[in-house]
Amino acid sequence: MTLESSKNLGGIGAILMFISVIPYVPYLGILSLVGLILVLVALYGLANYYRESGIFNNALYAVIAVIVGGIVFAAVAFIVLIDFFAALGVTLGIGNLPELATVLTQIDWINVGFGIIGNFLAYILLDLVLLFAFVIITAILLRRSLGLLSAKSGVGMFGTTGTVILVGAILTIIAIGLLLVWIALLLLAVAFFSIRTQQAPPPPPTQV
To answer: Is the pTM of this model over 0.85?
Structure first.
């Protein structure tokens, strides 16, 4: 894979990820997945070109971290929901999901014990904290990957993107964090397209 192809794949992939979160854009999930794959392929090519495996490895570990975090969060949330509904006397299963809304309206929520609701909220909060930890780990790994790429390519925008991603991840508890991560995708596209595919000629020898 050439430097030119890695540059173009990365830029296109970042743009696809950027537009995939815009409302009313069709096939959002597919665009995001294709964009992510293209960015990973580009980082792999750049890691080989610059002979710096950390460029790709850290990005790959970041993707693995966010996938594992999502699975763990969903699994814990599902278990907590099952226990919560069981405490309410409702058996949660695939067969009764269509009737769940009706069942919930029949529950006497006023007389439901505070302990049941309190435990449910506490476990959900802990699950969110766990997800937040995975998000931070993912952002740190991405920042490390982009920092290495910035140093090797000479494109400072990669380092800026990594920092914006990390700040956005920390601020995901408020809406502005997600906005920063979205902006970072556009910065990433700009950074990829800013890579010089031709080295500047060496300066002429100094006359003595």
So the answer is: no
The CA distance from 139 to 180, in Å, is: 12
Closest CA to 147 of 128, 133, 129, 166: 166
Give the pLDDT confidence of 99-148 residue by residue, as tens digits: 555 656 656 556 666 667 777 889 899 999 999 999 999 999 999 999 99
Residue whose pair of structure tokens reads 């910035």 in the numeric block: 150
**Whether 116 contacts 84, CB under 8 Å:** yes
Half-sphere exposure of residue 112: CA atoms within 13 angstroms, side-chain side: 18
Residue 203 burial by Cβ neighbours in a 10 Å radius (0-12, 13-18, 19+): exposed
Q: How far apart are CA 106 and CA 61, in angstroms?
A: 46
Structure tokens at 35: 């964009």
Q: How high does pLDDT run on average in the chain? A: 84
Spatial neighbors of 120 by CB under 8 A, at least 6 apart, are 80, 83, 84
What local confidence, expressed as pLDDT, does residue 91 receive? 65
Q: Which residues make Cβ contacts (< 8 Å) with residue 46, sequence separation at least 6?
A: 3, 6, 10, 55, 56, 149, 152, 153, 195
Q: What is the mean pLDDT of residues 35-45?
A: 95
